[in-house]
Write a structure and sequence with these properties.
This protein has 147 residues and is mainly alpha-helical. The chain has helices at residues 9-28, 40-58, 73-94, 101-121, 125-146. The protein has five helices and no strands. The longest helix has 22 residues, at 73-94.
Length: 147
């Protein structure tokens, strides 16, 4: 990734890996993704941030993406993403059908950190902005849905 590639293969793979447990859960527990707390502004912010994060993980928009923050940053990128995805899967496995505040917050905080970290490490301005929109709204919605 030199800062000039339009398609981010690594980001695409991370998004696919991140989405697998969500898709499995949605197929097995159709009632599991219901939003109990309905605040239109926060829900809209979350959706804009979510689709922005997904899109800017996959596509590098010229002029808003500048590549690795330092020469060997890709090593840190793979280590941190690997650890975050491992934790994300571990929580999904342990708490698959259990509702808890810990599960809700963990499964919203981990991808929020991942998106923000990846935006910083790859110097993707739009990914950083999308993550800053997504993280607080997603975490708040997750919290309110459990409480």
């Amino acid at each position: 990734m030199d800062g000039y590639e339009f398609l981010n293969i690594y980001g695409s793979i991370i998004i696919i890996i991140l989405m697998i447990p969500n898709i499995i859960f949605a197929l097995k527990c159709k009632e599991g993704f219901q939003t109990k707390w309905n605040h239109k502004v926060i829900l809209t912010m979350e959706q804009i941030g979510r689709f922005g994060c997904i899109g800017f993980m996959i596509f590098n928009i010229p002029g808003t993406y500048f590549g690795w923050i330092f020469e060997e940053a890709y090593i840190l990128y793979f280590i941190v993403n690997g650890l975050l995805l491992f934790l994300y899967y571990l929580i999904w496995i342990i708490y698959f059908k259990k509702e808890s505040l810990f599960k809700a917050l963990s499964l919203s905080i981990i991808p929020s950190i991942l998106f923000l970290f990846d935006g910083i490490v790859t110097q993707s301005i739009l990914l950083i902005l999308a993550a800053l929109l997504f993280a607080p709204s997603h975490i708040l919605i997750s919290y309110k849905n459990v409480k």
